[in-house]
User: Fold this.
Amino acid sequence: MELERKLSHEENRPCLPQKKPSPFSSWPWQNLGIYKYLLYGPFVGTWLYSKFWEKTPQKESWCFHILILCALRGFVHQLWYSYGSMLFLTRNRLILQQGVDFKQIDSEWNWDNFIILQALMGSLAILKFPFLANNLPSWNAKGIFCCLLLHVAFSEPVYYWIHRLLHVHEFLFTHYHSLHHESKTTQSFTAGHATFMEHLMLGIIVGVPVLGTSFMGYGSVSLVYGYVLIFDFLRCMGHSNVEVFPHRLFEIFPILRFLLYTPTYHSLHHTEMDTNFCLFMPLFDTLWKTSNPKSWTLQKKISLAAGGGANAVIPEFVFLAHVVDIMHGLHAPFMIRSYNALPFKTLPFLVPLWPGVVMVMLVMWAKSKAFLISSYTIRSKLHQIWVVPRFGFQYFLPFATGGINNRIEEAILRADKLGVKVISLAALNKNESLNGGGTLFVKKHPNLRVSVVHGNTLTAAVILNEIPKDVAEVFLAGSTSKLGRAIALYLCRRKVRVLMLTQSTERFTRIQNEAKVEHQKYLVQVTKYQAAQNCKTWVCGKWTTPIEQRWAPPGTHFHQFVVPPIFEFRRDCTYGKLAAMKLPEDVEGLGSCEYTMERGVVHACHAGGVVHFLEGWTHHEVGALNVDQIDVVWNAALKHGLKPV
Assistant:
């Protein structure tokens, strides 16, 4: 996946002069890409050989323990990332409100390099001192006290002074530590984002308490696992950007202020950088007078605000999305960050997770309301994405209609109560058969202050501007839908012959009568796909099967506004993507891809809501499309910096 990302974005990389890196600043395997994981190969091979071919595999069993420990360390970082990114749980506890953008995600892409490094360092220690791996008990209570003593006496002060030196010395900071501080909003993965030299020193700081305890004869298997995982747990907590401690805990037990740092405490080091250098214990900042005086007042402020929701920033625009299918549920921003930062596609390694997603789906179906999954800003205005916890196929179950509408209605009323200005509905949330394109909610609640927008006007504009100006004939499937009707009426004004596929003469006649008399002749009803066998411009607003696609002549281009997209069956034809637009260049904090869209690109209905908000329009955009507004909305989108894809 990493290799695919690098190849797909290679064209967009600027050609900058390469500076010679300082010694030990770059990783030895940084050019291996995804093949760096082959460095685990010797551990796997040694363990398998020891298990199946040797009679006394005591030493080599540590290869297995190292592999398990590496996997658990990655899992700890992933769990903290998932928790910190579950904005529906943590939005009131966020320390910095700014989201993580693609630049930071790319910079931190190889955050797990340190796990490989420390696995190699651990294996070298075992090869140098074989007795460390022999006959270690599963548990030794004395080892806990010994390891804790070494941590306090060695790891904490050594880390403090090395860390402080990296900041004080300009050369050391620039070449060995500034990389870690490039990340504006910290996450658990930021904890691993540092230079090779920095992690070499950190590896020693982690290793001394464990090795020292073993040298003293008090080592155990549980000590190795426990110390390393707790070390990672606390590092991830400090970088999580979520305050997890209640302030009263430190008021009841004041000594904890010297023994355990908080995420707020560590965040001040990243924002001000000349304070709070400790590893986990603020005691050492206190001893050497580098503790930030705002540390505990800010922690109390965030903790108090979290209880009443006062720390949350109210968005001015909300896009109400939905999950397309079960596998798409794994593309949520709080799942796998590297996966979510790329356009959605089903990958083999996700298949084993499918049963778990099904169980979550059943729970959400039973109870869950719409919840916040990500946010970004445009011109310093907060935009949020909420998701209705329903999967695509559920929208087509007759008995599920009432429940889905209730969830959408709850989201609209909540947005109205919060003071949101515009809420835009994603594809299936505005389905005509579900709620009449949002009309149901506007009629039921006539005094809504929030503008409900289906965004279809911009969707129609995007599709129409994709069709070449010299096209004389278009085949339109789904011609009597909201979008199909608007597209047909707009094209007939351009004197384009529109073959409208529909079995209902009544619906066709109704749409035809909306056109001016001189334009009505350009609208032609057809009832079979065979009628388009000589037309090379197809616009698909309904599912078109591979058999139906076979009637298109070679060289046909399929435009579409159907969810999910049609199968790209014909190799002698071309297929357009779902209508979409690229957000303005001043978008900040956007770090997730919207379904199959490229980075920074959103569906046209999403973009339509953004334009509605940026223009300051207060009317609802629901129900039938106003054909006269298509060019107005298109020009407004271009004016605000949105670009066609």
Q: What stands out?
A: The two ends are 24 Å apart (CA to CA).
